[in-house]
Amino acid sequence: MHVPALQPVRQLTDSDFTKEDVAEFHRLMTALLATCETVVDRYAVEGVWAPSASGLLGQFGETMQVAAEISQRLNQTRSGIRRIAGRARERLHACDARLDAPSV
Question: What is the pTM of this model?
Answer without folding.
Answer: 0.76
